[in-house]
Input
Amino acid sequence: MSTAVAGIGATEFSKDSGRSELRLAAEAVLSALTDAGLTPSDVDGLVTFTQDANDEIALARELGIGELTFFSRVPYGGGAACGTVAHAAMAVATGAASVVVCYRAFNERSGRRFGQPNPHLGGDPSSLGLEMSWHVPYGLMTPASWVAMFARRYMHAYGATSEDFGRVAVAMRRHAATNPAAWFYRRPITLADHQSSKWIVEPLHLLDCCQESDGAVALVVTSAERARDLPAPPAVITAAAQGSGPDQMMMTSYYRDDMTGLPEMNTVGRRLWEISGLRPSDIQAAILYDHFTPFVLTQLEELGFCAPGEAKDFIADGGIELDGHLPVNPHGGQLGEAYIHGMNGITEAVRQLRGTAANQLPGPANILVTAGTGVPTSGLILSRA
Amino acid sequence: MTTLHELAERLIAKGEGPREPTREPVNTTMIRHWTQAMGDRNPRYQGLDAVAPPAMLQVWTMDRESPSRGPLDDMLDALTAAGYTGVVATNCEHTYARYLTPGEELTYATRMTELTGPKRTALGEGYFLTWLTTWYAKDEPVGEMTFRLLKFRPREESSPTGKRKPYPLKPAVNRDTAFFWEGASSGELRIQTCGDCGELRHPPGPICPSCRSTERSYVRAAGVGEIYSYVVHHNPPVPGHDTPFVVAVVEIPEGVRIVGNVVDCEPSQVGIGMRVKVTYRRMDDELILPMWAPLES
Ligand SMILES: [Zn+2]
Output
């Protein structure tokens, strides 16, 4: 059974929402249902991230959803984003539920900030705590530092430079500058700004790191057939995939290979091409997870848009900007719009396919979306109906 | 007054000390106890024609009830008297000439080889003392051990209760990983090996991913390596660390990678391919972390 995203919704993106996370979740879900022309009583499934602090039943209580026949959570931080849609689509395709809402809500800037060191990361004798215990005692305990370790090796292997990473940040901020929903609306940066921004963890500057945001995003998934009868133009879920690689760890898979790639994203990419029958040349825009700039380059390579080590050339001269050979994150991504754990990228793909985006591309037919990098991850190809 | 280095020179010139006898000959009972304790199931060490595992070399001479006083004791006493009261082992390397067989009677003798210092270390200022012990079967040398320790003047880091402030970034330790941390506490870099197929593995775990065996053992890594990748942490501040600090992925010749801080040099001196050696840092009363320092040429 073919499935589709029939509705999208979000709160405003801010640094201090002033509201509880549960309220943000409820607002985003209501806005997505309104967009889809549905009501809470139509919903029979909910999917979110394992990291989300809002239980499905709490959200169902707030919105008066009533019965649920499907609920599921996707693990591994931002790697879950597209996975929520994959789970929802499977539930609809198998008949486990008919209308499934995917949501993510947090006060990531005004509440618990993922970028700050948490001394308890390595103290817990769970499998994750033990994994972290090989790194946290040495102060290697922030996402920026975990990614920086890969970035350094990538630079060494392929001759990429900090300026190459900076070009990603410049492109994202250029896109955000003309997106009124973006936190960095009307605030573009130059490569010189990037180079002079303070060190976070060498080789990463502050402007290599995405922002921190408060906000929520929700998406309504139902059958493509039902979506066609609803008011919003459907975004067909052409392919959805999850992937983890050999010897996978949470952002610290330093022990398995040459540390220049993202094998788990390769797995996701291979599945997306297999399921869809499409090739990179069939994709008109990509929404690539951009919590840190270096992994945008790596993703272009793992997904087959260019060869390993060649992303620095691919992104040169505006290659991933709105009029480049592959526009990436026309909304400005998480570097420019907001950090809602990748979920705001999926809504951007839907807007582009509907023709309603702030930085609208000329009639894209297929858009590829990815989720968190360095962790077990997921991806989607969404298509115009 | 003689300086520590003058004393060292004199003691080194004395050469090898007296040959000490051992209480028992190489014997199958001890071999069996040792291989069982270590989980070593090599058939070479079992049965009637068993030989002794070479790593047992020190076991045959561990009876220290009435050893005669040697040059080392004079050096250690002088260091203690000079205020270098702390002691930590830093290196231990064995060289084996041949297998030993049950019934062989061994003797051993020690010579002091080097005193370096004073050097600033994370534990405090101290001297590195190195000696060489040789084991003999009759007059044939059958094995050697180079041993180095650090005698240091403990830093004034104690709280009023006499205890160090607890280090805030403690690792979680469970029965699969305890051997590594116990090794670090005794100055050994232990890398898990599979008791069946022999595959080395770091970080360790309960099952061998190659052959699914649950028989685990470990090897003591030589303690040298090469930087494979590294970062310099600036922001945000991290508990227990002064910024900037360096963390590296180190590739060791045994064939695995391990993560640790790079110390005893400026962050700007660190690079991929840099040769490093392990060094052990006491973080509080409970935790010693293996770290990496530039390998002096
Ligand atoms: Zn094995």
